[in-house]
Structures are given as C-alpha cells and as structure tokens.
Amino acid sequence: MGQIPLFEQFSGLKDALPYTSLTNLPTPVEKLESLGAAVGTDALYVKRDDLTGTLYGGNKPRKLEFILGHALHVGATRVLTFGAAGSNHSVATAVYTQELGLHSISMLVPQANASYVRTNLLMSHHCGAELHACGTSLRPPLNKPLVYEATLRQLVRRKVTDGRIPYRIPPGGSSHHGIAGYVNAGLELAEQVAAGILPEPDVIYVACGTLGTAAGMILGLQTAGLRSRVIAVKVTTGPYVNTANMRKCIQSTNCFLHDLDHSFPLFQFVENESEIREGYSGSRYALYTKAGVSAIRMMEDHEELLLEGTYTGKALAALIDDTQAGRLKGKTVLFWNTFNSCDFSKEIADVDYHGLPRPFHRYFEEPVQSLDRL
Ligand SMILES: *Cc1c(COP(=O)(O)O)cnc(C)c1O
In percent, how much of the chain has pLDDT > 70? Predict the structure, then answer.
C-alpha cells in the first residue's frame, strides 16, 4: 500500500472510508530545468501523477482506489461507468476492475477520433470490459436522453439476471469517494513541500474535465494549510465546468469527509483560491489545439515526458502562455501531470478491433484528427 496521508492525519477516515491499494504513492516531484529555461522560469516543477499505477497511471488510479474500495465494501461484483469513446477513466476502470476480479461496463459517447481512442478501446476490450456505444452527437448535452435510456436498459438487465444493479461510477470518477483520492494528493504534496522536495508552489496548473481532480486537490491543499493557487484549465466546452460548480464540488466533498470524521475541518471557501481557466479547450472536447500540440512537443523535446492533446497539452499551454506573458516571474510553478505514461502496446498488439461492438469500428477505419501524431 502506498503512503496515504489522509488516513495518517485523520485516523477516523481509515475506518470510515473504504480503500483498496492500486498505486505507488507518493508520486515523484521533479524540477523541469530545461523546459523552465526555455519558457523563462527558473522554478518550474512537475508532479509525476503519470506514475501513480504500474498497470495504468495518470489521475484516475488515485480516484479508483477509493471508488473500487467502496464498490468492494458494498459487495458489488459489477461496476458501470460513463465516458467518451476514448475515455482514460473508462480504460483505467477496465484495467483495475480486472485486477480486482470485478466486471466493468462502460457507456461511451462519440468523440473526435485520435490514436489514443484506439489504444484505450483495445485495452478496455483486452481487460474484459463490456463496452456500449450510446449517444450519436459530439455535443454532450444532446446525448443525455440516449445515455439514460441505454444505461437504464443495462441496469434493469442486471437487476433481472444478478438480482442487483451494478455499482455506478460517475464520469471521470468524480464521486465523493473518487475525489477523496485527490484530497489525499493535496496532503501528499504538502508533505513533499515540508520535506524540502520543492518550495511551496505559488501556482499549480492542472487539466480539468469533470472537476474532481482540481476540487479534491484544492480541498487537500487547504486542509494542509498550503496557499498555492490552483489553475484548473478547462478542456470541455459545455457549461458544467464553472466556479459555482467547483465550489459546490469542494464543499460537498468537504462535508462528506467531515461527516465521516469530525476531526476533518469544515471550511468556508472564498472565490479567488482557485481559478477556472478558459480559452484552451479549443472548439470541442478532445479536439487538439495548436497551442496544446506545441506544448506537448516542448515537453517532449526538453524533458522527454509524454503528454496528450485532450487534457495535459492544453493545461501546459496555459502555463506556457502565462510564463511568456510575464505573469509567473519569480514564482514557483507546478505542472500537475494527470496523464498515464504506462505503455500497454504489448497488451493490445494482437487485439483485433473487430471484436469490439460495431459502432466503435469507425475509430479504426476513419482517420485520426489532423493534429494527432501516431
Ligand atoms: C480525466 C482526466 C483529467 C480530468 O480530471 P477531472 O477530475 O475529470 O477533472 C485530466 N487529465 C487526464 C489525462 C485525464 O484523463
């Protein structure tokens, strides 16, 4: 089991909050000397959450430790979750449910094609996940009724065959249990600051899709007494990611943890402790942007670290713009890498996409978007 400061500091949570170990924590923090010099800041660091898990890394395993811990605790044998066709959350769920002997069902909506969509679909299939294509639109709100209908059908079907409905995991794993994983991550960073591994960051940049990662992190940092300002770089185009929902997400998670262990403090939040950064999502979720792709290339050229175009490239693009605009002079800046860096090309080398449900074949037969590189 990794190091879990949430349990060390709030022992009541250890009994009240189910958990199953899937990660190697803490993840390292490294100084990005070369990229820092190139963009003109001498205190640039990265939090290597790409290394959370040995089977699959990125931000999702931190959430899944608490989510799947809870699923096991309530005796679930199947979980059902949601995402876009290439969802990192869906593939992470497939990988770790297989590890734990659970069955996973994913309800997936259409998205812009990219090479990672192919690898994630093949890996999920390889791990035995049951994949359902639902929705027909690239604009998420239009899919809602279709997703509800398809989901209801699956839930009823399991109720009839298994006698119970599967454990539901919201998109991105951003349930209270999942978000607890990032509260823990905030506490973990504070311990690394205390240990002198990095100075207290003035600013932290992180990609933001369903709010859970940034919200948990903000709550964890606040709990630890760190004053770092979190810039949550919005990668979606719908209305869901906004400051009001961010505040709600932080507060409800705060109440959730406080209710489980009264020694976990209850906070009043003020607005400027975090920021939702707009302007980097591009015209649609999962469509790569020039700024994002150029940020990915810079990270690769200078640090040999691999990012991707849907989330982390966009977050780094915001950081680079702010640095070059002189907004980060003299500041300690942390880039929180949320992308998986485990290579599973071997696992999927022999997986034939024809084994996937028919509606997914088009991701293998149609070209990937033009800014994507294989
Ligand atoms: C899911 C994901 C995010 C977004 O996390 P949320 O908690 O949904 O905001 C960021 N980066 C990567 C690589 C992801 O897969």
Answer: 98
